[in-house]
């Protein structure tokens, strides 16, 4: 039998190009100078699942997270589809320039990674990565995350203790470095789908103006986070 015939006679072995399950470490660094992250949700899931999708309307669970930092609805969804998650790994807020490490996350049969957290102080801004494919090969991989606008609330930039879905206003300014008495930057959201956040406007009036945020502290440009994933 010649070489060609021998090759044709060999059994066919299917080689999958999809990511294989892995144990991973995930390091998330806040790259901003004045924005805090509310409790993070880091979750490994199947390729057809999404915590959010840019260009589509936010789900009620995503709205809860983006307006008030409440990840419980997203955790329930993740648990219901067999995802493997780390909820609130920083045990609270992640301050500017700080990082948090999720160690030894066993992804099981899940092949994609998503990350979300609210950005404070914003009305409905969040940092996120949607459905990043986990490499099958061991190694260290880096990507960056943008700040998104959920499109569910006007960016009025008024800090009033709000945060419940559909209630205007910013829940808090954790750095306590803004102003009060703002008249409001915007009264409506022109894009009601999830989109790149336009950034905070702010002003430099501590007792009035249009915003309760300080333009010297609370403005940002994307990306707002760095993620280093170690596949073991």
From TrEMBL:
Pfam annotation, one family: Spond_N
Assigned keywords, A-Z: Signal
Top-level taxon: Bacteria
Residue ranges of coiled coil: none
Domain Spondin as annotated: residue spans: 36-154
TM ranges: none
InterPro entries according to UniProt: Spondin_N, Spondin_N_sf
Signal peptide annotation: 1-21
Identification of the protein by name: Spondin domain-containing protein
Protein's organism: Agarivorans albus MKT 106
